[in-house]
Amino acid sequence: MQTQSSTPKIETLVGKLGREKFIELLQIQNQFKENNLILQMDTAGLLSNRKDILHKQMEICLQYNEMFSAGESRNALMKKAALSYGIVDSLVKCSNSHAPSKYADMFSIPLAYLAKHCKGNIQEQIIQANPFPAFVRLISFVRSDKTLVDNGISAISYLLYHENIMVNETHPQYEVLSACNGIIKIFELFKRNTSKQSRDCSALSLGYLYRSREIEDQRMRQMVITHLKSLISDPDLDIKEYAIAAINCVSRNPVNLAEILKGDELAQVKNVLLTELKGNERQKKMTQTNQENKCHFLIAMLHNRKDDNLHNLIIDVGIFHVLLYVFANRELNLITPLLSTTFDEIVNNVDEQILLKLLNTNPFKALIRLIVHPNELICRNAIVSICTFLELGSGSSNSDQHPYFDQFSSSNWISQIFKCFHRNSSEEQKNYSAICIGLLYKNREIVDTMMKQQIISHLKSLSSCELECNSKAKKALIYLALNVDNRREMKRDGFKIPDYEDETGDDGEEEDNKVD
Predict the structure, then answer these.
(1) Which of 127, 129, 159, 248 could bridge to 166 as Cys pair (CB 3.0-4.6 Å)?
(2) pLDDT in tens, 177-212
(3) Where is the composition biased (Acidic residues) (predicted)?
């Protein structure tokens, strides 16, 4: 239970709320203290006393229902104050002390409002109080008032979801829900299909709970996964986001993944992505929406996950090649950030052998086309992918010149990358553009004096920072320093060239190729 010392500092609250609202909040906090004493009263005594206490407690719960369902900014402050004064713990205790009845429901409903849209510390503190048995009771019975059930399953769903949910570890609340028969009750509610909200939230909850865990019940596995896949196309963007997370969680088990991909699912994805945008504007928009939904489906499985088998399935069916075709041939303004992000997810978190297979398709022409795209994310993804492939294909020996230099030079692509470097866009685009040029000029002089000075200067600044691209910048400097003219420019201000072996993994045994 939180103590009063955990409440926000007075100066902070006055600054955020203004004095009038601050005084109002103080009054509410005092009311929380008084209400909590009433909620903690024992109802096991005389019947007359019991009725009086329950009546007071019911009035408090009605008050909290209205309070916790208020606007978002006010709601967050009220939730923090309620947690600080132990209201959540008291409501959970009251709910658990009653057999399933209107009284148990009475204490569970404000808990459900508290759990709605909660994040961060508020979410963690509510979970610590373990309100799940109370919510499971709310969803366990067929009720005339469907809002009770909707509130209960929504609360479960909100508490199970968090921003970092797409990881390999099994869900920490699986055992908690299993212990109170919650998983069975959630699936029963899903099958009852009393409302769209209850069915969606039931499927989402089960998806989160079965993260990296097989859904052993075959019927549950088929029904829940089918519904989650349908939610990828839901017009509600929040539901779509939650469905992506749920599919990501459940797909981390191979049996569940096989259910997701059964039949010719990936072939269907490829065919939809390959569909040309033609017809009237409505027809084009419909095709584009279908393609974006398929991208969401792929991202749902790929995000923050290393699974070489899954990547190979997606690549072998032809989806990588289709995306390259779209990038090379579709009008730039019709290439969306979602298509670019899907490509980025395919290229990320994969084994080097898979990247080599992708590099052998020579993806550069399509990607170079995207670095002039007006959308910053698309341009960023393209230049980062180019850099990834150039680094991988930089040659097997430290004395080699870059095998793709001639292609880039003859196609005027180096000039385009240098323009990307100069464009007033994100620092990330500028950084990776410089690295690309540094890699391409491996053991080769940058003849253009301005390019040489600016690229080397920028790479030197990157080599001393803590950005993710630091090691790539050092490798580019090492490659450039293999040429005496580049090395002279590099050492003009006493700069120490990074060690070859540390940054490239090469043993550097060839004496004539060591960098001094």
Answers:
(1) 248
(2) 999 999 999 999 999 998 999 999 999 999 999 999
(3) 500-516
Alpha helices in 44-143 (DSSP H): 47-68, 72-84, 87-96, 102-115, 120-128, 132-139
Tell me 232's DSSP state: T
Q: CA 277: distance to chain centroid?
A: 29
Reported as a single tens digit per residue, the pLDDT across 64-96 is 888 887 655 556 777 888 888 888 898 888 888
With cut-offs at 50, 70 and 90, classify the pLDDT of residue 13. Answer: very low
When pLDDT is cut at 50, 70 and 90, the band that residue 16 belongs to is: low
Q: 38 near 60, Cβ under 8 Å?
A: yes
One-letter amino acid of 30? N
48: pLDDT strictly greater than 70: no
**For tokens 């929406």, what's the residue?**
289
Domain ranges of the chain: 263-361, 371-516
- The predicted model gives 463-468 an average pLDDT of 83
CA distance 182 to 184: 5
Three-state DSSP string of 339-368: HHHHHHHHHCCCCHHHHHHHHCCCCHHHHH
Altogether, the residues listed in the chain come to a count of: 516
Q: How far is the CA of 460 from the CAs of 45, 282, 370, 469, 476, in angstroms? A: 78, 51, 27, 12, 10
C-alpha to C-alpha distance for 68 and 89, rounded to whole angstroms: 16
**Using DSSP, how many helices (H) and how many strands (E) does the chain show?**
30, 0
**Which regions of 386-433 does DSSP assign to beta strands (E)?**
none
Please give the average per-residue pLDDT across 33-46, as a whole number: 80
How far apart are alpha carbons 386 and 417 in whole angstroms? 10
| Mean pLDDT, rounded, for 503-509 | 48
Q: Do 227 and 239 meet the contact criterion of CB atoms below 8 Å apart?
A: no
Burial code (b: 16+ CB inside 10 Å, e: under 16) for 231-247 equals bbbbeeeebbebbbbbb
Under 8 Å between Cβ of 225 and 256: yes
**Tens digits of residue pLDDT in 385-408:** 999 999 999 876 777 899 999 999
* Structure token pair of residue 256: 């569940």
Alpha-helical (H) ranges within 161-280 are 174-179, 182-192, 196-209, 218-231, 237-250, 254-260, 265-274
